[in-house]
């Protein structure tokens, strides 16, 4: 299975230029992820099938940047952070066929945090051991939520919020015009004055306010939907 899934991961990495250093080094607001992403429970169920490339692609597109940024903020260099991303998804693929996600036992957010943190710690342990594989015999424990705090928790929370907002924006793209989305982003995320944005884009101030209101309402709804699914 590892060979087959590794091939799929490499295909996705090449397709998205994930092995290009510039792509990883520059955080971007742009995302091509499908906005009609299934709920986490549905998607996790699909991931039990290693051959469901569409499901794995959705999952990868949703979370690779989060995992990468957490690894980088934890002190890993670019190449090591890429390794953490790949190892995290390979680990998940190995566990998924027999894994049952129980929302009552903890949020998806906590579950993914523990898995990601374990892969980062594993990288550190392997470095100290001169490259030897030191995967724990108790790997099953990594799929359970861990409420204990550590140095990575604050980083995870920040990156999770950023990733969630970017996914919410991606979810709006097919539903609103590019101009309205730009007006919303400039006045809300970039915090520019409506009058300034109107002058720059040669539109009326009324158009700016209308776009900000309409898109803002949809944006809040998308953020809430994502929170309900993952937190």
Written account of the structure:
The chain is mostly helical and 231 residues long. The protein is built from 10 helices and no strands. The chain folds into 2 domains: 2-174, no CATH class; 177-231. The protein is 67% helix and 0% strand. The longest helix is centred in the C-terminal third of the chain and has 26 residues, at 205-230. It is elongated and about 60 Å long. Residues 13-38 and 134-149 have low confidence and may be disordered.
What is the helix tally? 10
The low-confidence parts are 13-38, 134-149
Number of beta-strand segments: 0
What is the typical, i.e. mean, pLDDT?
76
Order of helices and strands: HHHHHHHHHH
What is the global morphology? Answer: elongated
Looking at this protein, list some descriptive labels.
mainly alpha; 2 domains; 10 helices; 67% helix; 0% strand
Short description:
With 231 residues, this protein is an all-alpha fold. Helix content is 67%, strand content 0%.
Give a topology summary.
Elements: H1 2-15, H2 21-25, H3 40-46, H4 53-73, H5 78-95, H6 108-128, H7 151-172, H8 178-189, H9 194-201, H10 205-230
Helix pairs in contact: 1-5, 4-5, 4-7, 5-6, 7-10, 8-10, 9-10
């Amino acid at each position: 299975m590892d060979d087959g899934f590794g091939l799929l991961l490499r295909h996705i990495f090449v397709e998205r230029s994930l092995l290009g250093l510039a792509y990883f080094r520059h955080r971007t607001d742009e995302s091509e992820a499908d906005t009609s992403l299934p709920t986490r429970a549905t998607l996790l169920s699909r991931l039990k099938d290693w051959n469901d490339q569409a499901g794995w692609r959705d999952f990868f597109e949703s979370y690779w940047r989060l995992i990468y940024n957490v690894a980088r903020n934890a002190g890993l260099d670019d190449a090591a952070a890429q390794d953490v991303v790949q190892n995290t998804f390979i680990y998940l693929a190995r566990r998924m066929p027999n894994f049952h996600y129980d929302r009552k036992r903890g949020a998806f957010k906590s579950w993914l945090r523990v898995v990601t943190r374990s892969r980062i710690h594993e990288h550190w342990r392997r470095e100290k051991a001169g490259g030897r594989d030191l995967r724990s015999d108790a790997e099953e424990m990594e799929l359970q939520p861990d409420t204990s705090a550590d140095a990575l928790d604050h980083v995870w929370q920040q990156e999770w919020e950023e990733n969630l907002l970017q996914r919410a924006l991606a979810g709006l793209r097919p539903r609103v015009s590019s101009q309205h989305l730009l007006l919303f982003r400039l006045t809300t995320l970039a915090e520019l004055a409506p009058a300034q944005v109107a002058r720059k884009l040669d539109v009326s101030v009324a158009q700016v306010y209308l776009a900000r209101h309409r898109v803002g309402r949809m944006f809040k709804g998308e953020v809430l939907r994502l929170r309900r699914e993952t937190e």
